[in-house]
Design a protein that fits this description.
Structural class: alpha/beta
Number of helices: 15
């Protein structure tokens, strides 16, 4: 359900809402034993003083009684004493206000959204608690956190209990706050769309259906969509897409999306997303447990599509092109076999030794097409290797590339939006691990360093174009809630791509 955001000025006791959410933080502990207890002191944030007055100055005593410490993301309902226009109140912890980051604000706002699921309207001074952030940055972070924290996927619940929250009022304004709230809402809406697509069961999102949804999504958003059907895929000699998709009754598709705003100059930024709608492993069949979450193997494609849909709303001035191969990897009498050789769009041949290393095969075609269009830079996203999850866990993506400046630009964008990435090397001497005796290259290397050899494989198809690969196998799909990230599909990468496109500068040679 879409949210309605408003911005109000004035004191909290003049704003009507079902729930008033005010921040309470912690001050650093005293450094001298002469100052008494070394425990951090609570700091009543903007609006909390009005709640304290309504309670006759007993708010701190109440918080002491219930053990509320003001830690980031902590939240507790508080009586209002009937002296405020809000029907109820919520105190939310923000930690040390001087150290409150945009990501911390998102987490605190998500806590508000989850505790407010039974009311229709919330008014909050949360954005004003970040003393070191601009009004606009804080407001955008709160809007994102509210929408992402309230996310639910209830499509298949017999008795769904959706959140009732529909209206959010941010109390306190400043330059650019309304525009910042609109920006945060647009970004969160794109992330929520990606989450929905990832969480949808694979049988409901075959390649043809995702192609149709992409057309509908881009309508009126300044993005043109080309859909290549199986005949066109063969005509374009996309051997990786053909090979991976040939084992399924669901035929592949390939999407090319183009965003070219009026007045845009220079070469485009190219976004590439892996779109395996379900990955059984093919004839190199996964164990049952390994297939349980494989509806998420198109998370890279979902991120690219969602990001492309929001470019116009965010006023992105750069040209952006998207390349999304869509396949289902299934075992059958027509599936590719270990030992088969595929010819990729750029002419290179690949010996397929493991049909479960399929993502790099379809990305090879997509990267080849992207290079032919002469972009300024490329970034691809893929749930590519389990080895990356072993190395970095399920909250950090691996980052590899062939251009130091471009890698830094992508990493900086990810850091600004709170999507964690970590650089990994592409050692030239590891390249021999994917040498093939019968083809130009093989699709698997040694078990050790599997993420790196996968990156080296992709590097074979980007030529001299500045390129970054994000292995999002860990953070694309989580087993539990974490702040504003909910269990299941996370939409990881959407915010990084949008920040990257908004601030894009063509890398220097």
């Amino acid at each position: 359900m879409p949210f309605t955001f408003t911005v109000a000025t004035g004191s909290v006791d003049r704003v009507a809402a079902d729930l008033l959410a005010v921040p309470v933080g912690t001050a650093p502990a005293p450094t001298s034993p002469k100052r008494g207890s070394d425990a951090p002191a609570r700091v009543l944030g903007p609006g909390a003083d009005a709640l304290d007055d309504a309670l006759g100055g007993d708010l701190v005593a109440f918080l002491d009684e219930v053990g509320f410490e003001g830690k980031l993301g902590e939240a507790i309902a508080v009586p209002t004493g009937g002296k405020l226009r809000a029907k109820a109140a919520l105190v939310v912890g923000v930690g040390d206000p001087a150290e409150l980051t945009p990501d911390g604000l998102r987490r605190a706002a998500a806590a508000v959204a989850r505790r407010a699921s039974k009311v229709t309207s919330v008014a909050t001074t949360l954005a004003a608690a970040a003393t070191e952030l601009s009004d606009a940055d804080a407001a955008q972070a709160v809007a994102e956190g509210i929408e992402l924290g309230a996310y639910q996927f209830l499509e298949y619940k017999r008795d769904p209990k959706p959140s009732k929250l529909a209206k959010v009022t941010l109390i306190g304004g400043g330059p650019g706050v309304r525009a910042a709230v609109a920006r945060g809402s647009a970004i969160a809406t794109a992330v929520r769309w990606a989450r929905d697509l990832v969480n949808t069961p694979s049988k409901e999102k075959p390649p043809a259906e995702i192609a149709a949804e992409a057309r509908a999504l881009m309508r009126g958003r300044g993005v043109s969509v080309q859909v290549f059907d199986p005949a066109q895929i063969r005509q374009k000699k996309l051997g990786g897409v053909i090979g991976v998709g040939q084992g399924s009754a669901q035929t592949p598709r390939f999407l090319k999306l183009t965003y070219a705003p009026t007045g845009a100059r220079g070469k485009p930024l190219a976004l590439v997303g892996k779109g395996v709608v379900f990955d059984s492993g093919g004839l190199s069949l996964k164990p049952a447990g390994g297939m349980e979450t494989m509806k998420c193997d198109m998370s890279g494609a979902a991120a690219v599509l969602a990001a492309m849909s929001a470019l116009k709303d965010l006023g992105v001035k750069a040209k952006v092109t998207g390349y999304v191969p869509l396949v289902e990897n299934m075992p059958s009498g027509t599936a590719i076999r270990p030992g088969d050789v595929l010819r990729i769009r750029n002419g290179k041949t690949v010996e397929v030794l493991n049909t479960d290393a399929e993502g790099r095969l379809i990305l090879a075609d997509a990267l080849s097409l992207a290079v032919e269009d002469k972009p300024a830079a490329i970034v691809d996203l893929a749930t590519l290797t389990g080895a990356c999850v072993v190395a970095l866990g399920d909250k950090i993506a691996g980052l590899m590339g062939n251009h130091e400046g471009w890698q830094s630009q992508v990493r900086d964008a990810a850091d600004r939006v709170g999507e964690r990435v970590w650089p990994l090397p592409l050692p030239p001497d590891y390249r021999r691990g994917i040498d093939s005796a019968v083809a130009d290259i093989k699709n698997t290397g040694p078990r050790e360093g599997g993420t790196l050899t996968a990156g080296l494989f992709l590097q074979e198809f980007v030529g001299d174009v500045p390129w970054v690969h994000l292995d999002i196998a860990g953070p694309a799909f989580l087993s539990g809630d974490d702040g504003y990230i909910t269990k299941g599909g996370t939409g990881f990468g959407v915010r990084t791509l949008l920040e990257l496109a908004s601030t894009f500068a063509a890398p220097k040679d």
